Every structure is written in structure tokens, then in C-alpha cells.
Amino acid sequence: MLTIFAHSLSPNTTWKMLRISLPLLLFLIVSPSSSSQPTEFFFSGFKHLIDPNSLTLADVAEIEKNGVLRLTNHTHFLQGHTFYSSPFKFKNSTDGRAFSFSTTFVFGIAPDLISGDGFAFIITPSKNLKASSGQYLGMLNAADLGNLSNHLVGIEFDTVQNLEFKDIDDNHVGIDINSLVSNASVAAGYYRQGSSTKQNLSLKSGKPIQAWIDYDSIDNVINVTIAPSSKRPTTPILSFHVDLSMFLNEFMYVGFSASTGQLASSHYVLGWSFKINGQAQTLDLSSLPSFSRPPKKHTALTVGMSVSSANLVLIVLSVVIYFMIKMKNVDMVEDWELEIGPQRYTYHELKQATDGFSNKTLLGQGGFGRVYKGTLKNSKPYVAVKRASHESKQGLREFMSEISSLGQLRHRNLVQLLGWCRRRGDLLLVYDFMANGSLDKLLFDNPKTTLNWDHRFRIVKGVASGLLYLDEGYEQIVIHRDIKASNVLLDDELNGRLGDFGLAKLYEHDSNPGTTRVVGTLGYLAPELFKTGKATTSSDVYAFGALLLEVACGRRPVEHKALPEEMVLVDWVWEKYRQGRMVDVVDTKLQGQNNESEIMMVLKLGLICSNDVPALRPSMRQIVLYLDGEAELPENLGPPAAFDGDVEEALMLHDSLV
Ligand SMILES: *[C@@H]1O[C@H](CO)[C@@H](O)[C@H](O)[C@H]1NC(C)=O
Ligand SMILES: *[C@@H]1O[C@H](CO)[C@@H](O)[C@H](O)[C@H]1NC(C)=O
Ligand SMILES: *[C@@H]1O[C@H](CO)[C@@H](O)[C@H](O)[C@H]1NC(C)=O
Ligand SMILES: *[C@@H]1O[C@H](CO)[C@@H](O)[C@H](O)[C@H]1NC(C)=O
Ligand SMILES: *[C@@H]1O[C@H](CO)[C@@H](O)[C@H](O)[C@H]1NC(C)=O
Ligand SMILES: *[C@@H]1O[C@H](CO)[C@@H](O)[C@H](O)[C@H]1NC(C)=O
Question: Which residues cross the membrane (predicted)?
């Protein structure tokens, strides 16, 4: 058998070592063998590889000058892969049983502002994975999840909690077989020698961590152990019983896979050893190269040289001038902002993306500011950049602290927040671009194209499921506060997606901290908001009810030009309901479509949601059941929910708020 030891040198000791021990370092052991099948390897750093072809780097993976293997960088939606170039024989060809194996490696995860996705040690049948970035960790894609013909075994070191894959937290180690739903997982940590108390260990601390993975084919168990140093704990953090014989092919590749998503981390491997049927050679962290976190976008300028005083004056002067010029354009970043994800863009990037916020790229103007169409590097073809200005630092800061959680909200019926930028009082938010604009444009004021009922029904069902996710699907309840047709955006397949969630909160506080004002749009505002000023999931339900009515009636919730009795949509629909003439309110453009029962159901549901009494409104979950036809609407719609205030007064109040 042929065994190759590929040693490498740490950068600072290179020259000294080369002089004294060149022959020792570059050794190559060739033992007599009948086949040239490798059974082990050892990389103490990745510099000066004896066989430069021993590793296959794919996608963005790179070996840096100092011998660190970098799988990804801080750019989003990347994948990085590295494999040992030759496959290993993982199974006995006579009896088909998997062999034992052992591997150890030292890795580091350096997050950008907040951490992106993690990485994995993988055993795969091929070096060409048809995988996706983001939560798929570069291992699999949405179509092949769980497929037995993947023949994929991975040990994931995951730094994002993905509910879709039932992740336990945002800092865990898991064993994945053919799927990203781990067969077993545990919060990252380790047991100190002789201690049975688990020590927590942050995977994304930006410090090196050593991992040991051992598979025993007699006991059929995989053990995973991690530690912040090369002192190997005796007790593994994760132990999983499985016979890998049925999952592995006879020949398999071993390697690493990492990805970035909306948020990004850089993933590094500093050293790696592996062996089939035996213990992998030990790695010593202290002899490995070290990685430095990639520079943040804003680091202080350091001048590190000795200069004569004349030169110094010159340098200081030019630095001052440089900054004076630069200051005009630069975003001043405060400490608290650095803790915020998702992706932070520079003002310059966004300015460039939108052609200097030119009118040519202006998509529209909403309550919270102007929206521009933009093109960013390394991103989807188009993004929407919303520019909101705000004077209150207090409200801004509070909102910013929510951005990191808003950025993690992922649902097909929400407009994805991709990133942000703040420049003085300007807040710039980057969202997915929605090809078909907002729903109001296709509903009101005789639009060029009209939506048929099937489209409309699918849109409201989509919005309901997005709201249910805001309500229940995420670790904290997110109240939208401004649900209305112009905040429902339509993607290229006319799916309804809710935009601007959380943004209304920014405007609830005026410069006087402690006071709260009602924000939203008249006609969508639940009556209790005028009394309490406190938005709740139930006030969101009220606004959703108004949305249902407008979709079925094809008009705004408050129509100043309408007859007095028709001015407030919900009152008018109630009145017609009482008269048993609800068909009168249906959008005339929907006439002749055979969906009357569905339209009536949506109108009644709109009325139920618009009840004056919050407790009598259904929950989002109940609404989704009604819309999916899995529950029947109650016969009696309850007490009529009219806007019991004076309309004129409300309008005045509204005008004073906007
Ligand atoms: C990350 O890698 C990609 C692909 O190699 C490259 O285009 C991009 O500029 C890199 N980003 C950074 C921040 O280094
Ligand atoms: C493969 O399995 C056969 C039958 O169990 C056994 O005799 C042989 O030693 C095994 N070979 C290896 C390399 O383990
Ligand atoms: C592990 O999970 C995969 C995919 O979910 C499943 O096919 C497999 O049976 C599981 N294996 C074990 C041993 O639980
Ligand atoms: C599993 O993958 C194989 C090969 O790609 C494919 O032929 C098969 O249809 C897939 N099975 C399922 C259930 O998707
Ligand atoms: C470890 O983390 C868990 C959950 O994150 C936490 O409850 C526990 O207090 C932590 N333990 C220590 C010793 O920090
Ligand atoms: C796995 O861990 C268990 C529990 O500590 C231990 O008894 C067993 O020997 C370990 N097996 C391997 C292959 O490391």
C-alpha cells in the first residue's frame, strides 16, 4: 500500500526549518504494496504540498499564501469544496461491509457581522456535487434531499438554525445521511478530561477548533468530538449508532463542503488527517498555520512605519485630506451597528447599483420612502432598494436591532430582506425584486390587466401563509403593522408576497421617547389601535380582513369619492350582508367567473376578521384553515363590526398622522 505524508510548514518558521530539517520534512513513505490504493493522508497546513494534485479545490475554495485552506469568503451565496483527489476504498468487496475510518481536522469559522451558514466534513461518491448554497451547505439541493441514491454522509458544523431542517439551534454538530435533516445532532460543546459537565463551544468564534470523527464498523458507531485545543476529550459530544455499509459505495471521496447564504462566514481548514481502518495521525494545533479574520468593511487605518518628522507631517496631511474627501461619501458606522446582520452594504455599492438613485430606476414611492430597482454584483439579477429617511435615532436604532432577525425570516410569501445600509438619517433596505409590482396596481383605478379570481385567491392564500409564519413560524412573533394591497408584492409567477414587515415600528416612536403613535393606513387600522396604540397580531388580522374585502370588491377600504354609505368598505359590505345582497359588492371585473361560493367565503371571512372586538377575530392559523377549505366558516358572523367612530373625525386623525 502506498501511504503519503504531505507535510507543510507554518510561514514564520519556514526558513529556519528549511535550513535545519529539509530532508525530515519532505518525507515520503512508500511501503510495499500490491495496489496503489491510498488508505491515509496527513496535512499539517496546506503549504508546500508534496503532491500539489493531492487535493481537488472546487468552487471558491483556495489555499491561501500562508497554507490555510479557505473554503468560502464573506461574499454571499457561495459554495466551497475541497476533496482528497483520489477516492478511498470504503468497503470490503468480499462481504460488502464498510470499513472503520478516523479523521481529525482543525477548522475555523469567521462570521461577517453575524454568522452565515456552516460547513461539513463529507463522504461522497463524486467530486462534482449538484448542491446549493445557503442552508444546503453545498452538500445537497432541494430536489435530492433524503434520496437514498445520494450516498452522502456528512458531519455538519452548522451555525444557522434552519427550521426547515429541524435544526436544534444555531451552533450545533450533526450527522447527516442523504439529507440535511440530521439523524442526530447536539449543541456544540465538549467534556473536559475527567469532567461530566458539558462546556459550550461557539463554532463561529473565529478561533480554531479541532474535530475528531471516528467510525467503528464492528460496533457500528460514529463518534464526533470537538475541542478548542488539540487536547482530545475522552468523551465524544455526539455518538450515533449506524451501519454505514448500506449508505456508502465501495469507493468514496472525502472532503469538506461549506456555503454562505444571505449571511456569510469564511470557513477555514488548517490541517487534516485521515485513515481507513486505523487511527488518523494526530494533528498539533500549535504547529498549524493560523488564519486571520478577513478585514471587515470598516477598519481603522493604521500607519505602521517609522518616519522622519517631515514625512510624518506630509503623511498626516494627506491622511486628513483623504478623509476629508472620503467623509463626504462614507457611512459613519457606530459600534452597535457592527453587531447587526444581515449583509451590510456600503452606501457606495447601493448608489452604484441604482445608478445614483436616478429617476430611471425609481420603481415607486411608498409610505416609507422611495423604492429603486438595482443591480448588485454577486446577487440575483435585480434587487429593490428602499430608501427611507428618519430623524429619530432612537427609533432607528431599535429598528436596526430587529434587522438581524428580520433578515432571517424566510418564507416564500415574504419579500426577502437581503441587506441594509445606514447613512446618517437614511436607512436603505435591500429586498428581492418583485417582477409584477404591487397588488394595488392590479386592483384599483381600472388597471390595464386585471387579475382573475384564481389569481386573487392564490394571492390572499399566500399572504395568509406568510402572516402565519410571522405569527408562529419564527422564534419571536413578528407583527407586520401595515398590511395592505400596496404592501403585497407579486413575483414573476404572481405569487403574493408580503413586504415591509416590521418597518412600521420604526415610525411608531416620534422624537419623544416613550410616546407611541398609531401608524398604518386608515381602513386597515383596527379600532382598538386608536385607543391603545399597541399593534398586536390581532390588529394584523383586522388589516388582513380589509385586504380580503378589497381583493373581492376591487376597491380601496376607504374611497373618498364613493357615496357616503359606500365610503368605508367594511361598513358597506356589512350592510349588504345584512340585506342578503352581498353579490352587489363583488368587483364587477369578476362577473361571469364561476367562483361565487369562494368569493362569498372570502367576503365573509373579511367581515369576521374586521370584527371590532379583537378577541372575536380568528387567529391566522384559523384563517389559513378556512382559506384552504379545511374548516367551515361559522354560520353567524357575529355582531356587525362597523367603524363606530365618526368617519370625518377618523379621516382628520389620519391626516394628522401621515
Ligand atoms: C470571494 O470569492 C469570490 C469568488 O472567488 C470573489 O468573486 C469575491 O470577490 C471574494 N470576496 C471577497 C470579499 O474576498
Ligand atoms: C473482507 O471480508 C472477508 C470476508 O469477511 C475477510 O476475509 C477479509 O479479511 C476482509 N478484508 C479486509 C481487507 O478487511
Ligand atoms: C438518517 O436519515 C436519512 C434521511 O432522513 C434516512 O434515510 C435514514 O434512514 C436515517 N438513518 C438512520 C440510521 O436513522
Ligand atoms: C433519487 O435520485 C435518483 C438519481 O438522481 C433519481 O433517479 C430518483 O428519481 C430520485 N428519487 C426520488 C424519490 O426523487
Ligand atoms: C451553554 O449553552 C446553553 C444553551 O445555549 C445554556 O443554557 C447554558 O447555560 C450554557 N452553559 C454554559 C456553562 O455557559
Ligand atoms: C465512541 O464513544 C464511545 C463512548 O465514549 C466509546 O465507548 C467508543 O469506544 C467510541 N468509539 C470510537 C470508534 O471512537
Answer: 300-325
